Amino acid sequence: MRDLLLQCAGGLTIVVALVHGYLGEAKVFVRARIEPERLRTLIRLVWQASTVAWIGGGVLLIAVPGMGSELARHWIVGTMACVFGLSALANAWATRGRHFGWMMLSAVVMLAVAGY
């Protein structure tokens, strides 16, 4: 059961990351006016770097049950819970709780901690 919870957390993480990347391109950067243009490109790449990093975290959460190491489980779950927890808090604070992202990231944290 613990392994299934971690794998669900990893799968949800990947879904959240893909939605984050898509919404950034389809909704945020279409409307954003950022000058000079090179800063627009930099901010877009930083946005998508977090998308890729979250996908990597999701892959680790899915893979950790197969590693056979309690130490790996400890460090991966602990690190990902901190990363996604901080992301959830930042999202909730920045959007004043009006964006569903913080709820999804909080669900990832809860699933991961429950699977620890």
Description:
This protein has 116 residues and is mainly alpha-helical. The chain has one domain. Helices cover 84% and strands 0% of the residues. It is elongated, with a radius of gyration of 15 Å. The relative contact order is 0.19.
Strand percentage: under 5%
Helical stretch tally? 4
Per DSSP E runs of 2 or more residues, the count of β-strands stands at: 0
Low-confidence segments, given as residue ranges, are: none
The tally of structural domains comes to: 1
Report the sheet with the most strands, covering strand number, pairing sense and barrel closure. none
As a percent range, the share of helical residues equals: over 70%
N-to-C SSE string, H for helix and E for strand: HHHH
Q: What distance lies between the first and last C-alpha atoms, to the nearest angstrom?
A: 10 Å
Structural category: mainly alpha
Rg over CA atoms, rounded to whole Å, is 15 Å
Shape, principal axes of CA atoms: elongated
- Kindly state the mean pLDDT as a whole number? 92
Q: Summed up, what is this model?
A:
The protein is an all-alpha fold and 116 residues long. The chain has helices at 2-31, 37-63, 70-95, 101-114.
How do the strands and helices of this protein lay out in sequence?
Elements: H1 2-31, H2 37-63, H3 70-95, H4 101-114
Helix pairs in contact: 1-2, 1-4, 2-3, 3-4
Protein name: DUF3325 domain-containing protein
Keywords: Membrane, Transmembrane, Transmembrane helix
Organism: Bradyrhizobium sacchari
